[in-house]
Structure formats: C-alpha cells, structure tokens
Amino acid sequence: MRIDVRDVLTLSAIPGIGATRMIKLVAHFKDTRLIAEASAKELVRVEGIEKKTALTIVNFFRDSGLEHTKRFVDDQLKRANKADARIVTFWDKEYPSNLRNTYDPPAFLFVRGALQDTDRYAVAIVGTRNASPYGAQMAERFAQGFAALGITVVSGLARGIDTVAHSATLRGHGRTIAVVGSGVDVVYPSENHSLAQRIVEDGAIVSEFPMGAKPDAPNFPRRNRIISGMSLGTLIIETGIEGGAMITASLAFDQNREVFAVPSPANEKRQSGTNLLIKQGKASLVERVDDVVAILAPQLKNIVKPAEPSTRPTIQLSMFEQALVDALGDEAMHIDVLAERARMSTADALVHLLSLEFKGLVRQHPGKMFVKTS
C-alpha cells in the first residue's frame, strides 16, 4: 500500500470526501496516487462512492482550482514543520489502535510529540471546566494512580478537570495525550502553553483539525469522539447535565467503550451529570483507581499485575482531612459541630469528608452524622 501525505491532504480538501470515504477509497485502490488518476467508472466501484461523488472527485483533479489546494497542502506541511508536528495516517503503524477500531476514525491526525504502542492501555479523564476542590482532588488522585500503573491518561487540555488530569499525570511521571479542538499549533486556553510543552515532551498533542485551526465550538464534539476512541474507557469527574463531558460519555457508550463516573455530592446540582449517568446505567460508579482496573482487567492484564497480599498501606491525608479526623470522637457527630471543631466551613467539610469516606476512614449516618470507621 502506498500512502502519500500530500495526496491524503489533497483528498481531504474535496467536498464530500470525509474520513470514511477516504479510507474506503484507499482500501480499494491501495495507492493514493491512483485515486487522483481514476475515472468516474472506476470510482463508483468503491463502496460508498456514488456517481455524483465520483464526478466530484474527477472534476476536482481536472479543475484549475487544484492549484489552490496545492497551496493549502504546502502551507499545512510548512506549518507542521515549523511546529515540529507531523501527520500520522490511518494506515501508519503509529496510528492509535483503539481509535482505528471505532466506527468513525479520522483518516489522519496531526501529532506533536510521540505516540507509542503502549498508549493502547489508555483511560480518558474528562469533566467540567469549573472544577470544585473535590473534583480537582479526585482527578488528581485518579490520574496519578493511572500513571503509577503505566496507563496513559487521555484528556482535552481544557480548563478544569482536563488540566488537572494532564498535570497530575506528568507529576506522577506518566504518559498523557491531549486531544485538542484546534490545530496542534494553537494552544487553548492560552494559559496552558507551558503544560502543552510538557505534554509534548512526555506524551503527545493530537488533532484532526488543520494546522492553524482556531478552537471553534463545533470542533469540540468531534474532538471528544477521539478522546473516547483512543481510550479503553472514559472516566467522568464532575459535569453538568448538559456539559461537554456528557457528550464524551455518550460517544464512548456508542463506541462500546467503558464509561466510569465519580459520584458528585447529592446537594451539588451544577455537577449532577455524573450521578445521572450512574442512575441511567450508562456509567459504572467508581471511587478509586482499583475500581476502574477491575472492570478493565482483561484489557490491562499485560501491564497491571495482581496485587500481592500485604498489610494495609499508610493512607495519605491532606491537612484538611487530618483536621476532620482529629476532630471526630468515638461517637457520631453532626456536620455542623464537626466543621466548627475542624475550623472550616460546612461546605468544605462535606467535600473532605466524602474523600475520607472513599478512603474508608469515615462513615456517614442519617442526619448528616459522621463517625470514624474502626
């Protein structure tokens, strides 16, 4: 099979030739140059190429407007070279294997950094741009847990949960991939420039959008299918019912990939999308990395080894969690009294108490009463 990047970019400029048709054309002709030279009669033999589309392709390559496309291709390759980016096509070994096995994979990706074979062991972490302290804490915990296991973390480089997930993975010396809704040479939001550079050094930034493309709103739903498509499963941490992470969850569900959700506090309506996913049966409730690993065990067996029996490890607590543990006595205590003793607001106390519940150190009783576990 002969694939020329210039031909691929040229084909992408033909009206009506999306990724699916391009992949079918290449599968039929085995050579991107032969597509440009094919007659309409030859083209209609390709599945999904009807007479109208075949004539569009033929006329495109005969039209003098092809010179404009040549300038577009030259500009894209020049921009890519300047940004130290390259094009990875659907037929390249480097193309993400998980993404290749979805129903709507891009025909090519622009890539800064390196894609590795081990990236097939990937989990996406996505969520709201307006992360609460609880959401940020959970994103950090999961990301660092995945990093420690050698699981690549995929996210979208957006503010909030995405940024925390990328940053925590890098701090944990793990690999992370950012899928962006712009050209790979356009960092959005702008404050993530230094983070983006660190991702390029220890992972990759990828996009199906051309070099120089701005982060326009319609790009993000398409970006989201790549995030979920590159991953064995997608973890949702805090999202509104109409949040972008809900779209990613739906896409992962449609791609027959696992969907996980960290439950949000019942009184936090702004971020109740995760709870809705759990109630609808579209996501598995997870509280810790081990919950995700247990569900993905068949796919992760080559990198995640069964845990050896051991004594209970020391549990690390934040200063706020420690204050709450110290304030609790042997009897159940109401949240208002507990918050006052720990010198924090009730809202903050509830966030940290939920974290302590996940760690198995605190149990909640009816009436917002809390007690230490034995």
Helix content class = 40-55%
Round the Cα radius of gyration to an integer and report it.
Answer: 24 Å
> Which range does the strand content fall in?
5-15%
Whole-number mean pLDDT:
91
SSE-based structural type: alpha/beta
Low-confidence stretches: 307-312
Order of strands in the sheet with most strands: 1-2-6-5-4-3-7-8-9
Q: How many beta-strand segments? A: 12
Give the count of helical stretches. 18
Largest sheet, if any?
9 strands, mixed
| Principal-axis shape | elongated
Q: What's the N-to-C terminus distance?
A: 65 Å
* Topology as a string of helices (H) and strands (E): HHHHHHEHEEHEHEHEHEHEHEHHHEHHEE
Verbal overview:
It is a single chain. The chain is of the alpha/beta class. The chain has 18 helices and twelve strands. The protein has helices at 5-12, 19-29, 32-37, 40-43, 51-62, 66-82, 97-100, 133-149, 161-171, 193-202, 219-229, 244-254, 273-279, 289-295, 297-300, 319-327, 335-341, 346-358; strands spanning 85-89, 108-113, 122-127, 152-155, 176-179, 203-207, 233-237, 258-262, 284-285, 333-334, 362-365, 369-372. The strands form two sheets. Strands 1-2-6-5-4-3-7-8-9 form a nine-stranded mixed beta sheet, sandwiched between helices. The longest helix is centred in the N-terminal third of the chain and has 17 residues, at 66-82. The protein is elongated, with a radius of gyration of 24 Å.
